[in-house]
Amino acid sequence: MITLILLIFSLAFVLFLLPRKLKGYQAIFISFLLLAVFGWLAGKIKLVSAGSTESEAVDWLPQLGLNIGFLLDGLSLSFALLVSGIGVLVFLYAHSYMKSYEGTTKFFFYLLLFSGSMLGLVLSSNLIQLFVFWEFTTILSFFLISFFHEKEESRKAAFQSLVITFVGGLAMLAGILLLGSQVGSYELNDWIAGAGTIKQSKLYLPGLLLILGGVFTKSAQFPFHFWLPGAMQAPAPVSAYLHSATMVKAGVFLLMRLSPVLGGTPEWTSIVPMIGVLTMLIGSYFAITQTDLKAILAYTTINALGVLVLLLGINTAPSVKAAVLFLFIHAFYKASLFMVAGFIEKKTGTRDLNRLGGLMKSFPITFVITLLALLSMAGLPPMLGFLGKELIYEAKVQSPGFASLIFIFGFISNVFMFAVAMRILFKVFFGKPVNSFSVPINKKFFFVFGPGLLILLSLILGLSPNLLGKEIIEPAATVVFAQKVNVELALWHGFNLVLLLSAITVVVGSVLSYVLIKNRSVEEKWDRLNKRLFPVNLPHVFTRLIESFVTLSKRKTQFLQHGYHRYYILTVVVFTAALLWLQLILTRGWDFTLSLTLQPFYISGLLLVIVIATVYTTITSSRTRAIISMGVVGYGIALLFLYYSAVDLAITQILSETLIVVMFVLILQRLPFFAQLSRKSSKLRDLAIALVFGGAMTVVSLMAINVNFSSPISEFFMANSYKKAFGENVVNVILVDFRALDTMGEVTVLVIAAMGVAALFKSKTLKK
Amino acid sequence: MNSVILQLASKYVRGLLIIFSVIMLVRGHNLPGGGFIGGLLAGLSLAYKGFAFTQDIVEKEMKVRPEYFMVIGLVLVFASLWPGLLLEGTLMQGVWFTIPFPFTEGYKFGTPFLFDIGVYFVVIGVTVLFLFSLSEKN
Amino acid sequence: MEILLAVIVGVLYAAGVYMLLRRSIVKFIIGIIFMSNATNLLVFLSAGLVQGSPAFVNDTTVDTAHLADPTPQALVLTAIVIGLGMVVFILALKYKYFEITGTDDLDQLKQTDTHP
After folding, report:
1. Contact assessment for residue A96 and residue A444, using Cβ atoms and an 8 Å cutoff
2. Residue of A297, A399, A456, B50 with fewest CB within 10 Å of its CB?
3. Which of C56, C81, C92 shows the shortest C-beta gap to B36?
4. Closest partner residue to A652 among B36, B92, B125, by Cβ?
């Protein structure tokens, strides 16, 4: 499995190396690659359904307990089959769809990387590794949504989905780390083994909430659902792949993966179904008044994701079974519907329901495919969707807790879904033809191949569901429920309560859709009513939030980075002085052994001169005098060095001081005179700060004399200076021999400074 | 500044200062002096002439550009690192040998001294470049 | 004497800080020079003061305890030369600043960023 993922990732880069002639067929190559993956996975079905698993692991950072690990069990197998299988069809579809666009290589590169990341995600057995792949899918989804980056809405939508899923992903990482600390490992097996520990720990609830944050953002649950309709700016293959079958299911996958670890607690069975129910309702309710075909599909996807989360939240054997089955059903019909929507948009140039109509004659095959897909979505026989809906009703009826409420909401949502399906069907394919085709109809084989195959599969499996049930659904559900789940599927259950419910759904849904289709004003009124009922526009809120965040950081930056040079220095100095005084007071190292002497008097005199010159430099208003007295200070210090046995230092100080004065004089001709810029109050303030700082430094230097660490280095230098380095001047020997590396660094710094100065002066200046 | 005495003096003082700076460099290992001091002195000698005339004249008279001094200095510094590695097995290890000199024990020459010469040249280059840059007329 | 020298260090630091906080370019650079002098003196002082015995040794030297400590001297020597390079660099930088903005006032430093 490791080789598999690596192969996909490296082949993605090979795409750029393909010769020009083969570029046109890159999607076909990729679909063959994914077909091979699919075939390999399909070969494992027998093995996995027999109850065994396969795993691989490589040490990554064993010190941190991080391994690269892959696990093939019932759950990951079914997801991997979906990812690779639908991947094959999507790439074939994209081969036709993307022909007229620029930058297809980049597109397929991202899309292939995405397939690889998604496979990596579902096969991961280490949660940190899973997070890495999770973030890969987030980033790649950003690039794919913003494929038409010339359009502002595309960029906005891509940014929105990136930020939301990214923040969620970070929350999830925090959750994983929190709970991982409880079992001391990030391996899935250890988590499952330590499920009891995790559930009892105090960090369970925060960890659960954080992980759910990741799940809910990725799977577009309320209140984060709004990024998904926005993401419809992506090209149709992306919507069909990412936003129906794979990426948005990553959250559901994680929920399933962790359900044996985190599931079954009161927190889980109250939070998760509640969010699921809300999302389900919102998705189906808003789907009905949309006019954009892809937006309708996006909202129905939200509904489906809500259903999945709800089922996993209920966490009983029938609900888990229904969830796994519905996962497949939804992937089948939604991917094909998205592909059909892309096809229709391509051919007619619009996806507005009110501008479409009467397409049945022009596209008979597409009509059949759509009809069957919508039947599956509405949950009507003989499609797989019917089975799914029956199972879901059953699960809801049997759900513990607030079953009746879930049940009623589920019923409402199903009615809406039915009406939505009918509305799409009638608006697009029946009625008067209103379209003139902007693009001539040609080469549509791959446009219908993918959706056709998926729907055929949906039909066949609907008629004989146990092809899917025993081999795939059962092992997956068993992994999720952590107990053996028996899956016996049949299209016909006999007359019972659930069938009756289906019948009522159909009747009510038909009435609703009839009203909507017959009378366009109803739809408009309803839309207006919605706007009044739900005045909060979430994408708008999101934008405002981001904007205010930017404003906040701007203000913060303006406050801290105000651009006043001296206030930066002031801040640094004040804090340094405060910390120094604090430390001095805390350590109380006042007991100096030194006594104050003024001998010899000429040194005292010299010190007095230095002090006077220093003070004079600060107060004089003449630049020349300031520089000369500064020179006096420098020479005075040189004399001090000379008196206290530092001959080399003294010479160097004299020479460098001379040079500084010379250079000052050179540049002074071109600099303005001192201006009286500061006010008296700020001068006094600065004086106070300076005195506090200087006082601290005085005490520090007095303490520094007392602190005498033993000086073995100096002793070594002095002992070996003559014997080993043949030099009598120890200071010079240190510079050129013992510590020559430091000197070398210093010389290099000098050269760099000189080059900087030369560059500054020789560059042409832009005059204001 | 147009002082005749200063201009006349600068002709001789400059040469003296440069000779003096070399002396400072050579004796640096045993007595006060060394590459930094020698280099600063030599640099100052040019500043001195600049004060007597103008820096432009100094710049025109100077046949070698200061950048080359820095390059020569850095090359010498880096060159002095390797004999230690080749002969003693450690990078930057000092290697010494005696140049025979009549009537004395001979003059000791070693890689640290080469290093110091490198520093000398770098400092000359840097100071001269500083002076030229700052006195440049835009 | 150490106490007086410590006071000098303090005075130099205070003068340095005071000059750094001024708005004029030249005063700012003088402040930097004061700060670097003060730091050199602090390092030098911390090793203790020894009169009249610089660190020179030859093969007859046995007792080195009374000699001045050469390590801080070497450090400060390096620091002086580096300080020289830095001061000239800042001098060049500030001169360029003056050339661009046409003002000595460091409060106008913002203008260099918004320059076209």
Report:
1. yes
2. A456
3. C81
4. B36
CB under 8 A, 24+ apart: contacts of A284-287 = A284/A412, A284/A413, A284/A414, A284/A416, A284/A417, A284/A420, A285/A413, A285/A416, A286/A530, A287/A416, A287/A417, A287/A420
Pair A276, A221: CB distance under 8 Å: yes
Q: Where are the domains of chain A?
A: 263-518, 596-677, 724-768
d(CA A481, CA A318): 10
User: Which residue ranges in chain A fall short of pLDDT 70?
Assistant: 400-403, 434-444, 493-494, 589-595, 672-677, 708-712, 763-768
With beta carbons under 8 A apart, name residues in chain B contacting A755. 129
Residues A72-85: pLDDT tens digits?
Answer: 988 999 999 999 99
Count the alpha carbons within 13 Å of A11 in the hemisphere toward its beta carbon: 20
Tell me if A663 and B115 make a contact (CB, 8 A cut-off). Answer: no
Q: Where are the domains of chain B?
A: 4-135
* Alpha-carbon distances of A515 from A360, A377, A506, B41, rounded to whole Å: 22, 20, 14, 101
B36 and C85 in contact by Cβ < 8 A? no
Q: How many domains does chain C have?
A: 1
Instruction: Give residue C71's pLDDT band: very low, low, confident or very high (50, 70, 90).
Output: confident
% of chain A exceeding 70 in pLDDT: 94
**A440 phi and psi, to 5 degrees?**
-65, 150
Residues 6+ apart with CB under 8 A from A198: A179, A182, A183, A191, A204, A207, A261, A262
Distance of alpha carbon A384 from alpha carbon A377, whole angstroms:
9
User: Rounded distance, CA A342 to CA A574, Å?
Assistant: 65
Domain assignment present for residue C81? The answer is yes
Task: Tell me if B130 and C81 make a contact (CB, 8 A cut-off).
Answer: no
Residues comprising chain B, all counted: 138
Question: Any residues with CB less than 8 A from the CB of A452 and at least 6 apart, and which?
Answer: A336, A365, A369
Report yes or no on C59 lying in a domain: no
- Residue carrying the six token digits 């046409």: C102
Mean pLDDT value across residues B99-121: 79
- Residue C44 belongs to a domain with what CATH number? 1.10.287.3510
Tokens 């991917």 sit on residue: A335
Instruction: Inform me whether the C-beta atom of residue C88 falls under 8 Å from chain A C-beta atoms.
Output: yes
Residue C51 exposure: Cα atoms within 13 Å on the Cβ side = 6
pLDDT recorded at residue A593: 67
Q: At what angle do helices A445-463 and A384-398 cross, to 10 degrees?
A: 50
Closest-CA residue to A62 (of A167, A187, A179, A157): A187
Per-residue model confidence as pLDDT tens digits over A644-685: 888 888 999 999 998 888 888 878 777 766 666 677 888 889
Are the beta carbons of B134 and C92 separated by less than 8 Å? yes
In a domain, residue C57? The reply is no
Distance separating alpha carbons of residues A277 and A305, to the nearest angstrom: 10
B44 vs A663: CB contact, 8 Å cut-off?
no
Domain that holds residue C95: 2-50+64-112
Q: Side chain identity at A410, as an amino acid letter?
A: G
User: Do the beta carbons of residue A240 and residue A338 sit within 8 Å?
Assistant: yes
What single letter denotes the amino acid at residue A230? G
DSSP letter string over C42-89? HHHHHT----S--SB--TT----TTSPPHHHHHHHHHHHHHHHHHHHH
Which two three-digit tokens encode residue A692?
């506090």
Does A742 lie at the interface with B, CB-CB under 8 angstroms? no
Rounded alpha-carbon distances, angstroms, from residue A742 to A745, B25, C79: 5, 19, 11
Q: Give the 3-state secondary structure of residue A68.
A: strand
Neighbour-count burial of C59, counting CB atoms closer than 10 A to its CB (0-12 exposed, 13-18 middle, 19+ buried): exposed
Q: Is residue C12 part of a domain?
A: yes
DSSP annotation of A57 reads: E
Q: Residue B111, exposed/middle/buried by CB under 10 A (0-12, 13-18, 19+)?
A: buried
